[in-house]
Design brief:
Blueprint (H helix, E strand, L loop, with lengths): L4 H10 L11 H9 L5 E6 L20 E8 L5 E7 L16
Antiparallel strand pairs: 1-3, 2-3
Length: about 100
């Protein structure tokens, strides 16, 4: 895609048809998140700490509320988490693990 990608994606989303998916492009995902064009986020987390690389959620990004709708772990230890977006999040104070219900 070239030109106004956000407008093109918004146009595609307004049409009937199959899901639109982004695989492996954090830059495109970041622009779609900031434009409010992401309905669902699927994260696959590997049990490895790399310590470097491009961030999916950069410093200064707008807060986004997510609702966990599915989560599973593969036999190899990958976690697959599916979230639906719900706009601006509600904020709370974290007081430690014992405060999480």
């Amino acid at each position: 895609m070239t030109g106004d990608v956000e407008a093109q994606v918004a146009d595609l989303k307004s049409r009937p048809g199959r899901d639109l998916q982004v695989h492996g492009s954090s830059a495109l995902a970041q622009s779609l998140f900031s434009a409010g064009l992401v309905d669902e986020l699927r994260l696959v987390v590997a049990p490895v700490v790399v310590g470097q690389g491009r961030r999916l959620f950069p410093d200064g990004a707008s807060p986004l509320g997510l609702d966990l709708v599915n989560s599973r772990t593969t036999p190899q230890g990958l976690t697959i988490q599916v979230f639906e977006t719900r706009g601006r999040p509600d904020f709370a104070v974290y007081e430690g693990v014992s405060s999480v219900g």
